[in-house]
Write a structure and sequence with these properties.
Number of helices: 5
Distance between the termini: 10 Å
Radius of gyration: 17 Å
Largest sheet: 5 strands, antiparallel
Strand order of the largest sheet: 6-10-9-8-7
């Protein structure tokens, strides 16, 4: 199965206007946060720009975005001033994070003691968070426990093996698209 990933800076209003509809821009204008508005418009613009055509978006029962009328799966993430967009022919999940976020404070909520021993890389807490978020999106099932249902089995600098519940092992790709960022996807 092939997938395509883009990690990009947030677009200006002028840049995203080329690829977004009047209705989307009106909806985004109602958001209380300029950051949230730019993230929302940027990922939509990236999808249309890369597909080279006008497509519509909707949300599934879990609130995840989807491309209407296309045999494509979509996953979206954002971190500070970047968005990650993943398009795939099958189920997919992506997460993007800053590596300088303070994950230490919340690691017990998403990382088991066994998983914590998998790496001494200072970026591992961010990588593990990304992996679990991407797995959650991939699973498309509400209420999964990050410590009980989503498990990291192995980690190397560019690949991570994980499992959802008792399913088959899954390979996630780990990338560091630029200094200070990590992205995990499958």
């Amino acid at each position: 199965m092939s997938c395509r990933l883009w990690v990009e800076p947030l677009m200006s209003d002028e840049e995203s206007a080329v690829w977004t509809t009047d209705e989307e821009r009106r909806t985004a204008a109602s958001f209380g946060s300029e950051q949230r508005r730019r993230e929302w418009l940027t990922w939509r613009a990236v999808v249309r720009r890369e597909l080279g055509c006008e497509v519509a978006f909707a949300y599934n029962e879990q609130g995840a975005p989807r491309v209407v009328g296309e045999a494509l799966h979509l996953s979206v993430s954002h971190a500070r001033d970047r968005v990650a967009v993943l398009l795939s022919q099958g189920p997919c999940g992506v997460d993007l994070e800053r590596t300088d976020r303070r994950f230490e404070r919340v690691k017990a909520k998403y990382l088991t003691p066994e998983e914590e021993l998998l790496s001494s890389d200072p970026r591992f807490l961010a990588v593990a968070w990304c992996a679990k978020e991407a797995l959650y999106k991939y699973a498309g099932e509400e209420g999964l426990s990050f410590t009980e249902d989503l498990r990291i089995l192995a980690f190397s600098d560019e690949e991570l093996t994980a499992q959802i519940k008792d399913g088959e092992p899954l390979q996630l790709t780990i990338r560091y698209p630029e200094e200070g960022y990590v992205v995990a996807y499958l």
